[in-house]
Amino acid sequence: MATDTQLPTLISSKGPIHVFTIRVGTPPFEQFDAELLASLVLSCNIIVSASAGFNAFDVEWMAEEGITFCNSKSAKGLVPAKDPAGLTLGIVGLGAIGKYIARKATVFNLEIKYHNHTRFLVAEEKHFTDKFAAMRDGTFLINTARGAVLDEEALEVARSSEKTARAGLDVLCNERSVDRWFFDRDDVIIQPNLGGLADVAFCKAEMGCFEIIRAFFETGKANSVVNLRQLKR
Question: In terms of Cα–Cα distance, which of 97, 113, 98, 104 is closest to 82?
């Protein structure tokens, strides 16, 4: 049974739901929108996601229905340790996760460079982008943000020309139909949104969700509200 039919049944059998917490996405990559969540509208005050990303959530619709939507700033995995002293770490997006990685990296005497632009490596033309050209030869590229921020065709060119030595992608542009090029490479590692799927990370994210909910009902104000601007309209 699909989630959009299970949810109304759950609500009718368990009573009105005032708080809705989402731990992970629902396969096959359903969007958290009006079609899925409409049965919550009459009673739900706040929806909290245990992940940092919210591109799968219709925050505009939630705001229109007066539902506060929050993400979890505690949704950070553990950074594995390997001695990279003397190298430069470039971080695109110095948010909660980016700052967490930067703090970890300073222990290994890495030089940290960062940029807070949210759109990165999106090429208007289908060829080598200036962002890749600006990188040092032999760069290791890791994307744990959103699939859409990376031009995958430009990555193919960069890897073939050895501008990048290796790539690790936790997210892809089209996760329902992955470019077959990735499966033929042993120098590109892909995984389906597993970057935060560690027990410790999940525990932190869930505790963060409960802290958001507690603050919302105790003070009337939630932490880490994604659709605050829309709610104020």
Answer: 104
User: In sequence order, which residues have a C-beta less than 8 Å from that of residue 130 and are 6 or more positions away?
Assistant: none
Regarding beta strands 164-169 and 139-143, do their DSSP bridges make them parallel or antiparallel, or are they unpaired? parallel
What CA–CA distances, in Å, run from 188 to 37, 65, 114, 122, 162?
Answer: 37, 43, 23, 19, 12
Domain assignments of the chain as residue spans, ordered by start: 3-74+199-231, 88-190
Global confidence as pTM = 0.55
Q: What is the pLDDT of residue 233?
A: 67
Kindly report, residue by residue over 153-212, the tens digit of the pLDDT.
Answer: 888 888 888 888 888 888 888 877 888 888 888 888 888 777 666 677 778 888 889 999
Q: Which two tokens stand for residue 119?
A: 């759109």
Q: Looking up tokens 């390997």, which residue turns up? A: 82
User: Which CATH number is 88-190 given?
Assistant: 3.40.50.720
Cα(96)–Cα(166) distance, integer angstroms: 25
User: What pLDDT, on a 0 to 100 scale, did the predictor assign at position 53?
Assistant: 75
> Are 167 and 142 a contacting pair, CB within 8 Å?
yes
